[in-house]
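Much of our argument rests on the idea that a fold can be written as discrete symbols. The record that follows shows the chain in one-letter code together with its fold in token form.
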Amino acid sequence: MAGMNGTYGAAAGDISPDISGGLCFANIDMTNCQNEAPVASYEAPACPTSNCGLCYRVTNLGGFAGSAIGGIGNSVIVQIIDSCPSVSAWNYCKTEVPSNERCGNPKMNSMDVDQSAYAALTGVDFDWGVPNLNIGILPVACP
């Protein structure tokens, strides 16, 4: 989903030290998980919207954990349109994915960028087999 004025949309990690708009409210409950995804009846947590509308320049610093990926140094402007809650089953059910790659590490700034932003940053379309990115973030004025 795109942000306004030609930006890309992104969800900021709710426990990220520098970009969080506040904590989302829910409990981690593994009974909500069916394999690596939430059960069909799962309802996502409520999240504050105080950082929605803010913009950041996101720069591709390379694939996470040294994974090979193109586009290192590419940047895009994203506008925060949602939260990426650490307490969401969409994140904590992914037990095979390290917490710092699923908005679950309070020492890292996590951002879930839309698929078109990923393609602009890396030069490849997003798919489940592509690596997560190490990113640099810088607050900027929205275009």
Remarks:
- The CA atoms of residues 24 and 107 lie 17 Å apart.
- The longest strand covers residues 75-84.
- The helical segments are 89-92, 115-122.
